[in-house]
Amino acid sequence: MIRKKEESGLEKLQSYGTVQLLRYMLLPYWGLLLSLLVLLLSGMALDLANPFVLGLFIDTAKSGGSLQFLWVLAGAFFGVVILRQAVLVCETGIASSLQMSTTNTLRTSVLRHCLRLDFSFYQTHLPGELIERIDGDISTMGNFLSRFIISIVGNCLLVLGMLISLILIDWRLGCFLVVFSVSALFLLKHLQQRMGPVWEMQRQASADLYGFLEERFSGTEDIRASNAVAYMLRGHIEQTRKMWRVASQAGFLSTSLFQAMHWIFTLGTIIALALGIWLFQSGAITIGTIYIIVRYSTMLQGPLMGFTFQAQDFQQANASLRRVRQMLGTAGSIVDGPRQALPEGTLSLAFEQVNFSYGLDMPVLKDLSFQVKPGTILGIVGRTGSGKTTITRLLERFYDPDSGAVLIGGVNLRDVSVQAVRSRIAMITQEVTLFHATLRENLTVFDTTISDERIHQAIALLGLEQWLETLPQGLDTAIEPGNMGLSAGESQLLTFARVFLKDPDIIVLDEASSRLDPTTERRIEQALDHLLVGRTVVIIAHRLSTLERADSILVLEDGVCQEYGLREELIVTPNSRFAQLLKTGLDEPVEAL
Ligand SMILES: Nc1ncnc2c1ncn2[C@@H]1O[C@H](COP(=O)(O)OP(=O)(O)OP(=O)(O)O)[C@@H](O)[C@H]1O
Fold this sequence. Notes:
- Pfam families: ABC_membrane (PF00664), ABC_tran (PF00005).
- It is a multi-pass membrane protein.
- Residues 349-583 form the ABC transporter domain.
- Keywords: ATP-binding, Cell membrane, Helicase, Hydrolase, Membrane, Nucleotide-binding, Transmembrane, Transmembrane helix, Transport.
- By secondary structure, the protein is an alpha/beta fold.
- It folds into two domains: 7-329, ABC transporter type 1, transmembrane domain (ABC transporter transmembrane region fold, Up-down Bundle), CATH 1.20.1560; 349-592, Rossmann fold.
- 64% of the residues lie in helices and 10% in strands.
- The protein is built from 20 helices and ten strands.
- The chain has helices at residues 2-15, 18-26, 30-62, 67-116, 119-124, 127-169, 171-193, 196-218, 220-225, 229-281, 287-329, 388-395, 418-422, 439-444, 452-461, 465-470, 488-502, 518-531, 567-572, 577-584, and strands spanning 349-357, 363-372, 377-382, 403-408, 411-412, 425-428, 506-510, 536-540, 552-557, 560-566.
- The strands form two sheets. The chain has a six-stranded mixed β-sheet, sandwiched between helices. The protein has a four-stranded antiparallel β-sheet with strand order 2-1-4-5, with helices on one face.
- Strand 7, helix 18 (518-531) and strand 8 form a beta-alpha-beta unit.
- Helix 3 (30-62) runs antiparallel to helix 11.
- It starts with a helix and ends in a 9-residue tail after the last helix.
- Mean pLDDT is 81; it is low at 1-8 and 588-593.
- The site of adenosine-5'-triphosphate has 11 residues, from helix 12.
């Protein structure tokens, strides 16, 4: 129910324009918004009041008014300045809180959406780029939101207040400044339109750089080992050069815009001053009022220039919004089926005439069919690139077949929710991913319902009790990022412990023991004796010894089933491919058998 609600929320977000999105993000926080509005109005009133107080002070002083009144006016001026600062502090505090609340909601929605997308999405989007989207772009939108409220709304109110006051002082002067402000804004808008594409290019260049760095840092070991540091640095220099070009273009354009605005406003103030002097000479206004006119016309510069930067922020936020919407609009190709669960108990597996390609018109699995009975073990052998890992990806429903069906427990995976499938399968691959979190969290994968007692049982089963005792804080010990501080064997043993704790009905072991030394492998073998009992298992192995447990064997070549049968039978059939493999070893190409 909650998930349905979230999904419909996401769907809505994808179609929202800027204004709708602002409304969606801000409306739940209407209390904060209201307080902000009150503060903005108070700030505007205080900004408008100060020149009046000073104007009155000048007129009173010039006409020889009472000293006591002058002291009162000086005190009022001081009080207004202090109060204005206090209002400013509150405005900033409330706007920041509004920014954090709204952007955190959006950040979570985008992250949730990304986590649901399938493998093909992650092939075309590097992690660094996703970080830039989820953090960079949404922060830009958040900054815009908070500054938008304070500056755009505050500045609009201030400009309106000043123009109305100036019209009330003298309608001719007021009209001139209204015409001037509107023309300045049009000019600004025109100049601003040239900035949009440049900002978008700047953010894209930054996302590319993040993506590049992320990819290279994750392969640091390989880069050093293959002496590719110079190549990596060259790539980095090219990326930063691209960023530099776009950033200088953006910097040049915005500085020119700023300068142009500055000269326009200086001209406006000169004309307002000339008008003020003319009105004073004709006796229409006092010298104090000239001060108010000059003060207001210079004060106009702040908010109107503020609009320029807000328009810049708006364009940046719009560019960010476009990219975030684009990401939210990326639909996963894996669609949940209507069934919410697979049958209870031990599960069978079957591939029925499965054809599959990764979208490059190069079939990876061709008309593949096989069946695994509940509680039995299937061993898959084949040369590199023959499609073994692809079979496991289809089993976990990371992809759907192009034709044919993958069945678990007799149910076509297209008819079941992805969550229901993955909750019943555990996969141990060559890649061990440990999180920068405590040992407990790494073992339970953040499932707080798993008791410490069960964790200790799993650790004992893998013979890791002594290792656990050496850790300073036991299960609360933090695992360093990137599996640092753990040997390859220890990391893999921990992923085995994870599987024990998940207690799945199907286990997929993909080259699981390839990184282990003989002692660690023995430990794993002992643990597997317990773990595999009563479960359906798929073992992908390059070493034949790993297949000794298998009940049936599938020999795969270029995505085609070359042989499939019971292991015991294949062993005693002299011309079977498997029997010959046992003689020659896996190093020999299967084709040559
Ligand atoms: N994500 C992918 N996108 C495109 N092609 C892919 C992808 N993953 C694998 N392939 C291609 O699909 C074919 C089968 O790959 P797969 O990883 O399933 O083989 P494998 O038998 O598991 O190989 P290995 O023993 O090396 O792990 C290969 O030609 C490979 O290049």
